[in-house]
């Protein structure tokens, strides 16, 4: 442990001790979603199952609820219900990560946990920080107890990436397959085209660039946080592209996040199927997947959106911002990925109520969070939360509307839903996750209702409604 790590760690502990009361006092703090102890959270990193625990590392800005320099934060859990805060495993304490320990992933092998990440440095001077002035190194930290890092080293620097790339190369996702190791890296070319680099290694340390995956026509200027995996026999390339402009109801956010089915071989000849958005709400980005010990492929996304023009009042008022989506189990249904909350969350259900709605509106009280499972039988459906937020399905469109008082700049998002069979909504104190038709489409958003203590259902449907207990968070003492 170097002196900078030791002192930064102490500072993080101190700011957490000082600011936690303010965060805890916030009635809008999330009850069954992971959020930062204090300050800022973005991308999930290093998701894995290791030595009897799920590990959720994440981009953590403990000193600044509006961002700041990025550390890795760390939560562990044996069951995705009881979470323990662990010390920050990675601090900006090395020459190659001084201005941010950026996103990355975990590989579990031989009793050790290998954390691949991007070290970010911005040089002082008058640079554009796209083609010059910035270093993005691919680095590896290793831990054998899953908590404390034993070694930390650079594997690839900008000069090692293909020559046509800008300085923006980051977010390694690493896995083992056929006795080899593979890594995908998100990249922006000097011509501002987003793509994914594929690397191969035999020893986890030395990496060779073997392929580049891109669309025939440019699709955005930068692809962040790539993930490449096989689910139910289908290869998927998941990316978070920046610079894709809105087209009607597609790409409604400043940055999109979605996936291409990948046919052929990611190491050689491949074709990409059509891009499908993973989420069409306001706040979902940089998702990462991992394999649970029972073989399920689980995805967690950042419940936030970088550079959006809407805001979260918690930053200024209570010193924290953002959270994670619930863990979602994904499948390939032949044409799309479906995503639904992991079944573990059913253990949080209390106060079950069943309804049949037939034409007249039904109103019920909610208590700080709910799991609302609706089977639709009508031609239109309206679900309203208090006075301010509503989800309406009519004429092939499902529209999420947030009033001024709760949206903080968020207004409407639309999903194209020809036929609505079912809809499941997880409502936390300040978030909604809407799973449409078995999770074929998802809309995730933050919202800040003054009173989301009532739910109104209008249409012809059946609904099972549960209150939700909170997950348990054990903070470091
Ligand atoms: C995506 C991202 C990543 C980067 C990280 C920095 O939200 O921009 O590309 O590694 O956040 O926090």
Describe, in plain words, how this protein is organized in 3D.
The protein is 6% helix and 52% strand. With 477 residues, it is mainly beta. The strands form 6 sheets. Strands 24, 25, 26, 27, 28, 29, 30, 31, 32 and 33 form a 10-stranded antiparallel beta sheet that branches. Bound molecules: beta-D-fructofuranose. Residues 42-43, 59, 70, 102-103, 118, 170-171, 224-225, 285-286, 306 line the site of beta-D-fructofuranose (FRU). Beta-D-fructofuranose binds next to strand 1, strand 5, strand 9, strand 13 and strand 18.
Short structural summary:
The protein is built from three helices and 34 strands. With about 475 residues, the protein is mainly beta.
- Supply the number of helical segments: 3
Q: Largest sheet at a glance?
A: 10 strands, antiparallel
Mean pLDDT: 97
Number of DSSP strands? 34
Span of the ends, CA to CA: 21 Å
Structural class: mainly beta
Radius of gyration: 22 Å
Label the overall shape: globular
Strand content: over 45%
Low-confidence stretches: none
Each distinct ligand: beta-D-fructofuranose
Proportion of residues in helical segments: under 10%
């Amino acid at each position: 442990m170097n002196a900078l790590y030791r002192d930064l760690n102490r500072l993080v502990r101190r700011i957490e001790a000082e600011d936690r009361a303010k965060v805890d006092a916030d009635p809008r703090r999330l009850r069954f979603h992971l959020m930062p102890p204090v300050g800022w959270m973005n991308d999930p990193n290093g998701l894995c199952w290791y030595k009897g625990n799920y590990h959720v590392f994440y981009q953590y800005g403990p000193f600044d609820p509006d961002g700041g320099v990025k550390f890795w934060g760390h939560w562990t859990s044996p069951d995705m219900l009881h979470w323990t805060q662990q010390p920050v495993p990675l601090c900006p304490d090395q020459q190659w990560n001084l201005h941010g320990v950026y996103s990355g992933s975990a590989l579990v092998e031989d009793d050790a946990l290998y954390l691949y990440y991007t070290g970010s440095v911005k040089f002082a001077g008058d640079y554009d920080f796209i083609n010059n002035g910035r270093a993005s190194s691919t680095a590896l930290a290793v831990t054998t107890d899953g908590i404390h890092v034993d070694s930390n080293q650079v594997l690839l620097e900008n000069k090692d990436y293909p020559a046509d790339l800008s300085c923006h190369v980051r977010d390694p996702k690493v896995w083992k397959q056929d006795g080899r190791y593979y890594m995908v890296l998100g990249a922006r070319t000097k011509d501002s085209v987003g793509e994914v680099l594929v690397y191969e290694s035999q020893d986890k340390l030395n990496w060779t660039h073997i392929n580049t995956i891109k669309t025939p026509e440019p699709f955005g200027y930068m692809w962040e946080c790539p993930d490449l995996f096989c689910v139910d026999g289908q290869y998927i390339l998941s990316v978070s592209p920046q610079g894709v402009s809105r087209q009607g109801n597609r790409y409604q956010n400043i940055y999109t996040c979605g996936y291409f089915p990948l046919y052929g071989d990611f190491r050689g000849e491949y074709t990409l199927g059509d891009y499908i958005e993973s989420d069409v709400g306001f706040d979902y980005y940089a998702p990462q997947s991992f394999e649970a010990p029972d073989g399920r492929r689980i995805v967690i996304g950042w419940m936030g959106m970088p550079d959006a023009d809407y805001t979260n009042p918690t930053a200024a008022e209570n010193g924290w911002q953002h959270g994670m989506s619930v863990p979602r189990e994904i499948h390939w249904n032949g044409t799309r990925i479906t995503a639904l909350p992991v079944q573990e969350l059913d253990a949080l259900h209390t106060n079950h109520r069943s309804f049949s709605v037939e034409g007249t509106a039904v109103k019920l009280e909610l208590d700080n969070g709910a799991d609302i499972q609706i089977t639709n039988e009508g031609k239109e459906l309206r679900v309203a939360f208090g006075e301010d937020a509503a989800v309406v399905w009519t004429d092939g469109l499902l529209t999420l509307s947030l009033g001024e008082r709760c949206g903080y700049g968020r207004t409407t998002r639309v999903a194209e839903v020809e036929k609505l069979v079912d809809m499941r909504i997880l409502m936390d104190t300040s978030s909604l996750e809407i799973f449409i038709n078995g999770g074929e489409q998802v809309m995730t958003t933050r919202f800040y209702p003054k009173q989301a203590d009532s739910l109104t259902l209008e249409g012809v449907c059946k609904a099972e409604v549960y209150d939700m207990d909170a997950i348990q968070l054990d903070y470091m003492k």
